[in-house]
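Budget justification aside, the reviewers requested a transparent look at the raw inputs and outputs of the sequence design task funded under Objective 1. We therefore reproduce one unedited record. The lines immediately below are the structure tokens for a 152-residue chain.
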């Protein structure tokens, strides 16, 4: 397994990004999916990683710098062929390590609720993320929730 900054021009990376965005839109009430598309992930304040296993893109994840020592975890997605292998947990650790190296003191994320989101929520909570207040432009709803991890 290799975790490295992603080449957003790579067709396999683009396909997993598109799959993630489609799944988030399909599994969220109208107007409550905030998954970034390829152009959003290309923003200079966003870093995107890809995990490769046997030369296949197994997962992606991104970190968006928010300023003031804060950053947002974005676009975490494991390809269906690679689920339940611990890949997402290793990718999450790599992103957290990078955040620390950038002097980030709080890492936040916004996600949905319900069965489709339970595996991701379990991963984040196991790593120490806790539910909290909305951040940025997000608004908490019956569907959306925000989680935070203090980095020291």
């Amino acid at each position: 397994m290799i975790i490295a900054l992603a080449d957003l021009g790579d067709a396999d990376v683009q396909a997993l990004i598109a799959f993630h965005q489609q799944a988030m839109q399909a599994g969220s009430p109208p107007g409550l999916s905030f998954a970034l598309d390829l152009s959003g992930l290309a923003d200079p304040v966003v870093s995107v990683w890809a995990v490769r296993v046997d030369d296949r893109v197994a997962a992606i994840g991104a970190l968006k710098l928010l300023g003031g020592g804060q950053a947002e975890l974005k676009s975490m997605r494991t390809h269906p062929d690679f689920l339940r292998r611990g890949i997402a947990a290793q990718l999450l650790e790599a992103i957290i390590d990078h955040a620390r190296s950038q002097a980030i003191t709080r890492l936040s994320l916004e996600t949905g609720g319900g069965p489709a989101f339970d595996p991701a929520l379990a991963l984040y909570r196991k790593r120490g993320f806790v539910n909290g207040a909305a951040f940025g432009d997000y608004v908490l709803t019956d569907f959306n929730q925000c989680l935070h991890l203090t980095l020291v």
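The first helix runs from residue 11 to 26. The mean pLDDT is 96. Computational costs for records of this kind are itemized in the attached budget.
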